[in-house]
Write a structure and sequence with these properties.
This protein has 5 helices and no strands. The protein is mainly α and 95 residues long. α2 crosses α3 (45-52) and α2 (34-41) packs across α4 (60-69). The protein is elongated and about 55 Å long. The relative contact order is 0.13. This is DNA-binding XRE family transcriptional regulator. It comes from Maribacter polysiphoniae.
Length: 95
């Protein structure tokens, strides 16, 4: 299988950087080590390091597993939750 590296514009990479930083801070607030989180999430410590750096090439399911370990899985449901633009487009179609 030939995988391609995810390419993001710098302004969008900043989103991933912030997500990674938020995950790292959540881990530290809970006083969990990288070893504890990676073991509980079923990933290698190097993968957790990539997640905490905001690597967009890491599978979204692995981000979820890390959030689950810290009891933040409900935050995952907030992704694309408020689609105001999509609702406006839908409403225009109904006219």
């Amino acid at each position: 299988m030939n995988s391609k590296k995810a390419i993001l514009l710098p302004k969008y990479q900043k989103f991933f950087d912030q997500i990674g930083e938020n995950i790292k801070l959540a881990r530290k607030r809970r006083k969990l080590t990288t070893e504890q989180v990676s073991e509980r999430a079923g990933i290698h410590r190097a993968t957790l390091y990539r997640i905490e750096k905001g690597d967009p090439g890491v599978a979204i399911g692995l981000y979820f597993n890390v959030l689950r370990v810290m009891n933040l899985q409900d935050d995952f449901l907030k992704l694309a939750n408020d689609d105001a633009f999509g609702r406006k487009l839908q409403d225009l179609d109904l006219l």
